[in-house]
Amino acid sequence: MSKYDWEAIERDYRAGHLSIRHLADKHGIPESTVRSKAKSLGWERDLTEAVRTATRAKLSRSSRTDLAHSDDARIVQAASDDAASIVEAHRQAIGKWRRIAERLAQHLATMEVSDDNHDKYARSLNAGIDALMKVVKGERQAYQLDEEQETNPEGPHAHLSDDELHDRIRVLTKKLGYV
Protein backbone atom coordinates (compact mmCIF):
# COMPACT_ATOMS: atom_id res chain seq x y z
CA MET A 1 0.00 0.00 0.00
CA SER A 2 1.33 3.44 -0.99
CA LYS A 3 1.98 5.98 1.73
CA TYR A 4 0.39 8.70 -0.46
CA ASP A 5 -3.23 9.07 -1.55
CA TRP A 6 -2.47 9.19 -5.28
CA GLU A 7 -6.14 9.54 -6.26
CA ALA A 8 -6.48 12.70 -4.17
CA ILE A 9 -3.14 14.02 -5.43
CA GLU A 10 -4.19 13.41 -9.04
CA ARG A 11 -7.54 15.15 -8.45
CA ASP A 12 -5.83 18.21 -7.00
CA TYR A 13 -3.18 18.19 -9.73
CA ARG A 14 -5.67 17.95 -12.57
CA ALA A 15 -7.95 20.59 -11.02
CA GLY A 16 -5.10 23.07 -11.32
CA HIS A 17 -6.30 25.33 -8.50
CA LEU A 18 -3.25 24.71 -6.31
CA SER A 19 0.33 25.32 -7.29
CA ILE A 20 2.41 22.16 -7.31
CA ARG A 21 4.23 23.46 -4.22
CA HIS A 22 0.93 23.92 -2.33
CA LEU A 23 -0.37 20.58 -3.56
CA ALA A 24 2.82 18.87 -2.32
CA ASP A 25 2.53 20.61 1.06
CA LYS A 26 -1.14 19.67 1.36
CA HIS A 27 -0.40 15.97 0.76
CA GLY A 28 2.97 15.84 2.55
CA ILE A 29 4.87 14.78 -0.53
CA PRO A 30 7.97 16.20 -2.25
CA GLU A 31 7.26 18.44 -5.25
CA SER A 32 9.64 16.41 -7.39
CA THR A 33 7.66 13.25 -6.65
CA VAL A 34 4.42 14.92 -7.74
CA ARG A 35 6.03 16.21 -10.92
CA SER A 36 7.59 12.85 -11.87
CA LYS A 37 4.39 10.89 -11.13
CA ALA A 38 2.31 13.37 -13.17
CA LYS A 39 4.74 13.15 -16.05
CA SER A 40 4.96 9.35 -16.00
CA LEU A 41 1.15 8.93 -15.86
CA GLY A 42 0.40 11.76 -18.31
CA TRP A 43 -1.67 13.86 -15.92
CA GLU A 44 -2.71 17.19 -17.41
CA ARG A 45 -3.72 20.29 -15.51
CA ASP A 46 -6.58 20.85 -17.91
CA LEU A 47 -9.53 21.61 -15.65
CA THR A 48 -8.51 25.06 -14.41
CA GLU A 49 -11.06 26.96 -16.53
CA ALA A 50 -13.85 24.55 -15.60
CA VAL A 51 -12.98 25.08 -11.92
CA ARG A 52 -13.09 28.87 -12.37
CA THR A 53 -16.45 28.65 -14.12
CA ALA A 54 -17.93 26.43 -11.42
CA THR A 55 -16.51 28.69 -8.70
CA ARG A 56 -18.12 31.75 -10.27
CA ALA A 57 -21.42 29.90 -10.51
CA LYS A 58 -21.27 29.01 -6.81
CA LEU A 59 -20.38 32.55 -5.83
CA SER A 60 -23.25 34.00 -7.85
CA ARG A 61 -25.68 31.76 -5.92
CA SER A 62 -28.09 32.04 -8.82
CA SER A 63 -26.86 29.24 -10.98
CA ARG A 64 -26.05 26.24 -8.80
CA THR A 65 -26.23 23.24 -11.06
CA ASP A 66 -25.50 19.57 -10.68
CA LEU A 67 -22.51 18.42 -12.64
CA ALA A 68 -22.39 15.15 -14.54
CA HIS A 69 -21.01 12.18 -12.60
CA SER A 70 -17.66 11.84 -14.31
CA ASP A 71 -14.17 11.99 -12.86
CA ASP A 72 -13.68 15.46 -14.31
CA ALA A 73 -16.95 16.69 -12.85
CA ARG A 74 -16.04 15.44 -9.37
CA ILE A 75 -12.63 17.07 -9.62
CA VAL A 76 -14.17 20.35 -10.77
CA GLN A 77 -16.80 20.15 -8.02
CA ALA A 78 -14.26 19.61 -5.23
CA ALA A 79 -11.85 22.25 -6.52
CA SER A 80 -14.58 24.84 -7.03
CA ASP A 81 -15.93 24.12 -3.52
CA ASP A 82 -12.46 24.87 -2.14
CA ALA A 83 -12.07 28.01 -4.24
CA ALA A 84 -15.56 29.31 -3.39
CA SER A 85 -14.99 28.83 0.35
CA ILE A 86 -11.69 30.73 0.12
CA VAL A 87 -13.34 33.64 -1.70
CA GLU A 88 -16.23 33.68 0.80
CA ALA A 89 -13.70 33.86 3.66
CA HIS A 90 -11.95 36.74 1.87
CA ARG A 91 -15.27 38.53 1.52
CA GLN A 92 -16.01 38.19 5.23
CA ALA A 93 -12.54 39.41 6.22
CA ILE A 94 -12.75 42.39 3.86
CA GLY A 95 -16.16 43.24 5.36
CA LYS A 96 -14.58 43.41 8.83
CA TRP A 97 -11.87 45.76 7.55
CA ARG A 98 -14.47 47.95 5.83
CA ARG A 99 -16.31 48.33 9.15
CA ILE A 100 -13.04 49.28 10.88
CA ALA A 101 -12.24 51.87 8.19
CA GLU A 102 -15.78 53.28 8.51
CA ARG A 103 -15.40 53.58 12.30
CA LEU A 104 -12.15 55.51 11.81
CA ALA A 105 -13.86 57.77 9.24
CA GLN A 106 -16.76 58.45 11.61
CA HIS A 107 -14.35 59.30 14.41
CA LEU A 108 -12.35 61.65 12.20
CA ALA A 109 -15.54 63.30 10.94
CA THR A 110 -16.47 64.34 14.51
CA MET A 111 -12.97 65.14 15.72
CA GLU A 112 -12.08 68.75 16.56
CA VAL A 113 -9.02 69.85 14.64
CA SER A 114 -6.78 72.31 16.43
CA ASP A 115 -3.22 73.61 16.25
CA ASP A 116 -2.28 70.97 18.81
CA ASN A 117 -3.65 67.95 16.95
CA HIS A 118 -3.78 68.84 13.25
CA ASP A 119 -0.65 66.78 12.52
CA LYS A 120 -2.11 63.68 14.21
CA TYR A 121 -5.40 64.28 12.43
CA ALA A 122 -3.62 64.50 9.07
CA ARG A 123 -1.70 61.27 9.72
CA SER A 124 -4.90 59.51 10.79
CA LEU A 125 -6.70 60.85 7.73
CA ASN A 126 -3.96 59.58 5.42
CA ALA A 127 -3.91 56.21 7.17
CA GLY A 128 -7.69 56.00 6.90
CA ILE A 129 -7.67 56.83 3.19
CA ASP A 130 -4.93 54.25 2.60
CA ALA A 131 -6.95 51.67 4.53
CA LEU A 132 -10.07 52.51 2.52
CA MET A 133 -8.15 52.18 -0.76
CA LYS A 134 -6.93 48.74 0.28
CA VAL A 135 -10.43 47.67 1.35
CA VAL A 136 -11.90 48.86 -1.95
CA LYS A 137 -9.21 47.00 -3.90
CA GLY A 138 -9.78 43.86 -1.82
CA GLU A 139 -13.55 44.05 -2.30
CA ARG A 140 -13.18 44.48 -6.06
CA GLN A 141 -10.97 41.38 -6.13
CA ALA A 142 -13.12 39.30 -3.76
CA TYR A 143 -16.31 40.15 -5.67
CA GLN A 144 -14.57 39.83 -9.04
CA LEU A 145 -15.62 43.29 -10.16
CA ASP A 146 -12.55 43.84 -12.32
CA GLU A 147 -12.70 40.61 -14.32
CA GLU A 148 -12.12 42.52 -17.54
CA GLN A 149 -8.54 42.84 -16.31
CA GLU A 150 -8.09 39.15 -17.11
CA THR A 151 -8.60 39.90 -20.78
CA ASN A 152 -7.03 43.37 -20.65
CA PRO A 153 -3.85 43.14 -18.56
CA GLU A 154 -3.73 46.92 -18.26
CA GLY A 155 -7.17 46.97 -16.62
CA PRO A 156 -9.97 49.53 -16.87
CA HIS A 157 -8.17 52.13 -14.74
CA ALA A 158 -4.68 51.64 -16.16
CA HIS A 159 -4.63 55.26 -17.31
CA LEU A 160 -4.82 56.50 -13.69
CA SER A 161 -1.64 57.01 -11.70
CA ASP A 162 -1.55 56.06 -8.02
CA ASP A 163 -1.81 59.76 -7.12
CA GLU A 164 -4.88 60.22 -9.36
CA LEU A 165 -6.56 57.17 -7.85
CA HIS A 166 -5.66 58.42 -4.37
CA ASP A 167 -7.20 61.82 -5.21
CA ARG A 168 -10.40 60.18 -6.50
CA ILE A 169 -10.81 58.24 -3.28
CA ARG A 170 -10.15 61.39 -1.24
CA VAL A 171 -12.88 63.23 -3.18
CA LEU A 172 -15.28 60.30 -2.73
CA THR A 173 -14.49 60.19 0.98
CA LYS A 174 -15.38 63.89 1.24
CA LYS A 175 -18.62 63.41 -0.72
CA LEU A 176 -19.64 60.57 1.60
CA GLY A 177 -19.08 62.82 4.57
CA TYR A 178 -16.16 60.92 6.09
CA VAL A 179 -13.98 64.04 6.13
Q: Can you describe this structure?
A:
The protein is mostly helical and 179 residues long. It has 2 domains: 1-46; 84-175. It has 8 helices and no strands. The protein has helices at 6-15, 20-27, 31-41, 48-60, 71-110, 118-142, 148-151, 162-175. Helix 1 crosses helix 5 (71-110) and helix 5 runs antiparallel to helix 6. It is elongated.
Write the layout of secondary structure elements.
Layout: H1 6-15, H2 20-27, H3 31-41, H4 48-60, H5 71-110, H6 118-142, H7 148-151, H8 162-175
Helix pairs in contact: 1-2, 1-5, 4-5, 5-6, 6-8
Task: Give me some keywords for this one.
179 residues, mainly alpha, 2 domains, 8 helices, 70% helix, 0% strand
Radius of gyration: 23 Å
Secondary-structure content class: mainly alpha
Largest sheet: none
Number of helical elements: 8
| Strand coverage percent | under 5%
The number of distinct structural domains comes to 2
Low-confidence stretches: 63-69, 148-153
User: How do the helices and strands follow one another from N- to C-terminus?
Assistant: HHHHHHHH
